Amino acid sequence: MISGNENISARKIYVYEIEGRSVFLMASGLRSVRDKAMAYFEEALTHNEEPMDRLFKVANAFSHQIRKAEQEDRKALEESGLSFNIFCLMGGRMEKDDEHKLYLIYPQANWVEIGQGTPYHIIGSAGYGKPVLDRTLKYEDSMRFALKVGCLAFDSTRISAADVDFPIDVVIYFGDTGHLFQRRFEKEDLLEISEGWQERLRTSVANLPSNWLDAFFAEISRGEDSWPDALASFRTPG
């Protein structure tokens, strides 16, 4: 039975209190699909009579609402040239879970559990931030380090993707207590790390080993005197 349900929403992050346990859900995709699935899910929680004692049961309940929204809207969306698109990350720990869990939920309403083999997962625009994460983040890294890397990955995406921008919503879940902390960051909050990252990136590129470039440009310099004759021969008809 659900002893209470409280919802706090912040753009693409939703926090629920279900049977005294905190569950967070991060979503990406088509806004109308996301909003409808969330509204149906919140309504279902208030009328649910089955115990939500495992997080996979909460994921199943949300997946059911995705299927409901899909049955209602997919045809109309596709006729309008849009795809039925929603990806979600759901995390938390319910009463009978042996540890905190994280699930990736697909538009098809199926899900997979994310474990230690995956130090991060991206939903939404992935191409620009993924190289930063691949090169730096490891599962054993501290949360402080992970947040820095996450912000840099977001900044790389923000610079290159027109549909990504501030604010950033951050959720930290404490697996041992089940407590959850949420914070929103605006552009001015992270201006120092954004500008510092850009300047350090340029400095790092300038300081990279360049023996191969020295040899390359030396070769260009040695052959520079012969270029005019070579170009004249190339342009001469016949």
Briefly summarize what is shown.
The protein is an alpha+beta fold. The chain has helices at 31-47, 55-79, 130-136, 143-160, 191-206, 211-223, 227-235, and strands spanning 7-10, 13-18, 21-29, 86-92, 101-105, 111-113, 168-173, 180-185.
Write structural notes for this entry.
The chain is of the alpha+beta class and 238 residues long. It folds into two domains: 115 residues, Aminohydrolase, N-terminal nucleophile (Ntn) domain (Glutamine Phosphoribosylpyrophosphate, subunit 1, domain 1), CATH 3.60.20.10; 99 residues, no CATH class. Helix content is 44%, strand content 19%. The protein contains seven helices and eight strands. The strands form two sheets. Strands 1-2-3-4-5-6 form a six-stranded antiparallel sheet, covered by helices on one side. A hairpin with a 2-residue loop joins strand 1 and strand 2. Helix 1 packs across helix 2 and helix 3 runs antiparallel to helix 4. The longest helix is centred in the N-terminal third of the chain and has 25 residues. It is elongated and about 85 Å long. The model has no long low-confidence stretch (mean pLDDT 89).
